[in-house]
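ligand=alpha-L-rhamnopyranose
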Amino acid sequence: MKRQIIMLVLAALLLTGCAAQSGRNIVKEDSAGVYAMVIKSEGNTYNDLMTQGFREVIEGADGTCVIAGPTEITAEAQIEILQELIEQGVDSIAVAANDEDALSPVLQDAMGQGICVSTVDSDVSKQARQVFVNQAATEEIARKLVEAVYEMSGGSGQWAILSAGSQATNQNTWIRAMRSVMEEETYQDLRLVDIVYGNDEIETSKEKTLELLENYPDLKVICAPTVMGLAAVAQVLEEQTDADVKATGLGLPSSMSAYVKGDDAICPYFYLWNPIDLGRMSGYVSLALKEEIITGAVGESFEAGDMGNFVIQENEFGASEVIVAPLIRFDAENISEWQYLF
Ligand code: RAM
């Protein structure tokens, strides 16, 4: 199925006359190159918003944009898509990884064939990409989420995490960083009782939320660092009216607006960034790599259109990354400003 999606997309480019086969590369006539974005999975609004920003920038620079994503949130499904893109001779690949290590061989193969490789939203090991486009600083995400759990729990008691894919680099990186923050004296009375995985699927996430409520009757907070997961937790807590549990995490204002309002809000506040801007930054980085304005090394700088000038930094793993923006806090006071934007 996935292979068919890729071939349909690329065939459409050829048939519409917007791409002509020339040697190894498929290039749109007068195109600035073929730029692919591989998302974690189809059917996730967050990923649609990210690809919207990517497409805007690539097509604005007269490039040909190819968006591809698996139906299931696995590394194996992404590897198949990446192999297809390499065979089709794209010039650039930006990928949101479902696994930190499994994609390394195929991405190193792509770079070996002269394809520009970056990651966005969810990274891979540093030798498998030139640079990571990171939505916000890992330490900031971890600390803000732990502080939210602390406040909503009253400073003590049981809490749980509902994550996305069990191998997803971004969620696992944030969870590791949260555990590190939790070691601080302030949080010694909080107890993380479980981590469950909803696969960025609403129904799976709702099932896992119900299991948490069943298994931990004293649970006070569920933190979901995934927009599909947080929406699912909020929906379940709205249905389970006898559950005295709060929800927080990373969410889309458009899907969480009903849950932040009122004195006894299910989700008093949550965080995120602008996923459209994340996709736009990935577009600018993909263009800058292809045009050899940057190689992706720490210390290099580039212009990201109206987003301004950015410098590539070294992250906690000694790898190169671009931090797009600070976290945004969404609550009853400001939700109406954001809920129609993303
Ligand atoms: C989901 C995905 C994505 C993550 C957001 C917060 O959409 O897991 O990778 O960044 O949530």
